[in-house]
Fold these 3 entries.
Entry 1:
Amino acid sequence: MTVSRLVFDAAAVLTVLFAAVMVIHRHPVKSVLALVVSFFGLAVCYVMLFAPFIAAIQVIVYAGAILVLFLFVLMLLNVPEEARERDPRPIQRFLSGAALLVFAASLLGIISSHGAPAAPAASSPSGEVAPLARMLFSSGLLPFEALSVLLLAALVGAYVLAQREEAK
Amino acid sequence: MIGSVPLSDVLVASAALFLVGLAGALLRRSAISIFLSIEVMMNAANLALIGYGGALGTREGQLLVFFVIAIAAAEASVGLAIFVALFRHKETIDVNKINLLKW
């Protein structure tokens, strides 16, 4: 058990734990704050897997931008705490719980039987960013440019959707 | 193995994270919580992609995760705009009370 494996496992446990806190908590703002901690743990996992660039954008884009957007919307709408009333749809709840258990069992079964890749690693991984950038702007150039159009479309779409009725 | 982290650890962490997200998406009633759970599931997929990419010694996994994060940003902005519009109309984001398309 080496140090980096220990750090990875600790960060992964932290990530899953705080994601569970997010799911369990009824107060939406506290849910989002738990998810921020979870995403920081995930960034530590990425560093341990030699992906420091992804760890950086995980913190900047996910924890920094997307979750702050969630917080803005929660505070703008003043979303109340989820009521502790009985669920009006008990059958659906039971079925989704059963489906969850079946899915968990099949997922763990698949991982334990077919988890490892057929071909082992050709080269030892390194955390350099430059080769990733070279790949992004050569083989990944078309999706990269398509993504910029998608982001523009999302910007316009969000503006139109959130507009007030009388402004149209 | 990625460095000294075995792939099985990565996959188990990813599966656990995905299941937590799935449980949230299925069992919660607030639309914002469901949306956050979907983000958690997406992050679980990202973790598996980076784990497999490291185990195979390529950077394709990291490239894919980069695109997934950018698409998640676009998705979050449009989704939250839908919630804002929905809240203006119905004064709630409880998915049980939003039944416009149901008979």
Entry 2:
Amino acid sequence: MSLQAQVIEVIAETLDIEAGDIKADVSLYSSVGIDSTEMVEVAVALGKKLGVAIKSGELNNKQTVNEIVAIIEKKK
Amino acid sequence: MNKTKIAITGLGIVSPAGMKKATFWANLKSGRSFVEKIERFDSTLYQSRIAGQVHDLDAYSHISGRLSKKIDIFAHMALVAAEEAIKDSQIDMGNTDKTRMGAFMGNAIGGWLFAETELRDMYVEGREGISPFMASAWFPAAPQGQVTIYYGIKGYSKTVVSDRASSALALWYAAKTIKDNKNNYCVAGGMEAPVTPFSLLCCNTQDRLTRNNLNPKTAYRPYDLHRDGFALGEGAAMAILEKEETAKARGAHIYGYIKGFGYSCDGYHRSEYAMKPEALEYAIKMCIKDAGWKAEDVDYVCLDAEGTVLGDILEVEALKNVFGSHGKKMAFSAPKSMYGNLLGAQSSLDLVATLMSMEHGLVLPTINFQDADPRCDIDVTPNKAVEKKISKAIIIARGRGGINMVLGVEK
């Protein structure tokens, strides 16, 4: 599974939404209305699932999935 | 004096005795008990381990899984009850000025199911184990926040924490904001979810809960000689309030009117009542006066029914002192004997039961009454509903430390 697909899967599972509703190149706020608190939950879940250390504030809901993937790739 | 009449035009409930008004009414008039053993966690070592419980909230819920995982069950109950009340009122929410709509809610203990789980995770997994929604999920005003966000309500709103009298005061606050022309509509009521491992423990420390665990159906027996405290209950009830003229103009069904309110505190002890019921009498008289009634006008009293030896004696003494010989002509009862006391949500469910009693001309019973206590010598409508026209009623709510609230309702 690609990193992009993994990120989308974690976001969908964390928020209890359909993966198909998440668009990779649109901000998470615009595509699925993620608020800042949900984003904290997503960041923790991504860190655990992908085994990377994500600092507080490193991810935000104005970012797209692709931007998040780029941040995670740099840490791998 | 402001003569604006505050109409009640919508009702919604989440209760151990039913999730819809019709079911609730059918169950209550039959005089059945909905108190049962607590089995959702191991309650074996709790002194009181029975309660009126809501088992099927999800089946009646309209909210998404995404939202429900961010909130405690007490906010979920408030959302379900509010949805039902708003639908019942037939308010056109799409064409209502939300800056003139408020939410007033009563709660006593907060949302502990969410908090307990997260605190366990914090001590086991460390701070990153905690849900970021902890901060917005557990506190008593969380349901008010969730209901206002869900419906886009932006008017003057408030949450009241006043032990078992919380929602009585919330209802009155809501009515007052409409009277004072701060709001056009209010969603008002209360919600409580005390059947969790930690909150049940805290409630047990009050030493007011029945310990008759082997007989859940007959354990809560207010005014009976062998009473030993009340059974807990969980749930929510919401009412829609608006001015009478607004309700009539839009052809809404009016269940009744909130007419008066009385309040006092014993000023005696941090948790116990004063040994004389003067403060409760004062609150009852204040309510009757505020409603523009005389004591002789009151047809029905929805009792506080703490079910403790002293609590019931003091309540009856206050009622006898206020109503005198008229007490023989009026009706008293405690429908909560069937499903437990919902603490901060109790008065709002008492309001629903009282309004439905008014609609049907039927006084709901106080169940499990077998042996009369000579110190509680009023007719509490034992065990069986009784037909009676009710036009004016008061709802009594007391809280620990001698909080006294009395809500006056008229058909």
Entry 3:
Amino acid sequence: MSTGPEQEPSHRVDAEQLEFGGGLEVLLAAALERVAPGGVLEIRTPSRAVALELPGWARIAGHDLIGEAAEQGAQLLRIRRGTKARILAPPLPERGPRPVLRDGELHTADWRRGEEPADPDPSAGFAPLHSVPEAGAPTHHWQLSRRDAVWADDVGELAEQASAQQWDASRDVPWEAARELDDITEKAVAQVMTFLAQNEYAALYVPARFLGQINPQLVELVLWLGSHVHDEARHIEVFTKRSLIGGQHGYALASTELSLHTLLDEHDFTASSLLLNVLGEGTFLDLLRFIELHAPDAATATAARLAHRDERRHVHFGISNIKRAIFLDPDLTLTLVAAAEARAAKLVSLSGLSPLLVESLTVMAAPSLQPAELAEAAADIRHLMATMEGNRIRRLRACGFTATAAQHLSDLHTPNLM
Amino acid sequence: MSGAELRLGAVSYHPRVVTIWERFRTYFADAGVPTDYVLFSNYERLVDAVLEGTVDIGWNTNTAYVVLDHRAGGGTRILGMRDVDRDWGTVLVMRKGESLDSPTELAGRVLALGSRDSGHAAILPLHYLAEEGLDAAEQCRLLRFDTDLGKHGDTGDSELHVVRAVAAGEADAGALSDVYFSAFRAEGVPEVADLEVVWRSPTYYHCNFTALDSLDDEVCRRWSDAVLAMDFDDPSLRPAMELESVRRWYPGDRDGYASLTAAMQEQSMLT
């Protein structure tokens, strides 16, 4: 073997009994990682078969065999590391600080080193957080790429909560409890559940459409929207199951469909956040609480309670998102009010909550056709409507709208509730 | 097409050849040496086309190059070759544990070979084994896999047959290129796990870009410079270069073709 200075190995590795196809490639790749491009690695192997196969392996891996020798029952082979990087990217950074744990838990809000990017490359790919993307990958064009167009300060924590509070619509609801209702009450419950499920479809489709437009570098938002979509899928599931379990049927109302159709017409992220999360799901919070309190059976109450827990997060995101957006651009309130006005203009044919739904809610809450009980339930419904309006205005104020604007927006809100 | 555009012939041994040459075509245009490509189904037709002037440059296997150079009376020039083409080797593989000390021990046994027009999997194995003292054509029973004739072993199909035949016990040993054997192993071809390399040949050259001496010197120089300047670190070029199994192009020379020329003469393949 030549012993010129250019042939001298900077590193040596003993392959011992390792063979190609049995882990040797891994050892060689790791050893070559430590050798500078153009540097020499000496490999020692007792196997003649390995020594004979090594030149072919080295050549397709981009390295050159520069010498072979036998020594005390072993083969020594020297390969010069190729100068071309395997991955077309800068070297990986040095091992850095590790995320902090909270009582042993790794929270999504704690995984970034520094702030999320304000203006990530709109053509960036699916490079996970703090990874180094290789050049030459196909480019994307994310329509929602600027952080300030979509962000909420606590989005990481909200995604964290969404993961922690998952539930199972097949097993976490006492379905047996829903089997014993009389025909009239069950029919009313089926109508209310059908109404809820119908609305939850729109609550799923709206974030689902935005999800595919988000720059993946804003990963917390991707996780958040993914959880929102998943939550709504479960809501569709649980309310559909509750409507089916009693054997009765409900109407999917055209007025509800019209209202939801206009929700899908909105293509601006922040305006959708206002119309769906704050106004629609916010109003549904009060409706779900009412159903939980007045449900004639434990299955209905449980379904409403579990959905309510999710909707609280969605409303929280909406308020947080809009509050941040208005803080950054106070004039945005005008744009948002205009979006609500535009939607309301399409809903002039709706004069109030569907009478069929009001009747169903009343019977469900009574739960009978006894005049005294109906009167009490009707009073509860009137009280619910007042509560909804009061809470809507309170949430809008929390977003940063003036009292006047909040009242105006609440008045514009769809009679369909979502 | 401009009048100055060169025509390069290549053999379509796989659909990826189109991907490679579509990218290289734009590269050559950007490099100031516009070059269109023409695909042939076999190297014999490509060699004819170079000799007839239908194409200016052939992207030849070593076998095609030797035939072309022979038919041109030595009037060819090499404009470039890949890094992997410079130290090509042929290996003999056997089932693990059946190793041999000398290829002469294969006398009386079954030797699997790739396509008969493959330099690395048929022609050179016979030549180099003869140098080791084994006249395989006479002393062994040859199990030939003449698949994809005309492609000169480019597809690797016949070598896959060789590997499978040895693993299945239909042959005692098999000859194939070291690069294909390593590639089969990397791809996880299951039969490779049961095999090991028992012998390797001296190295020789493989493919090259060949032109006739009649092609203008300045054109050759500029074209060759453009090939050599192709950069594997250019993200827009790397995928095509990886498909062509090249990290870096070299000028190339005739030195590494002597053994194949001798082998083809011995085997009466140059008439």
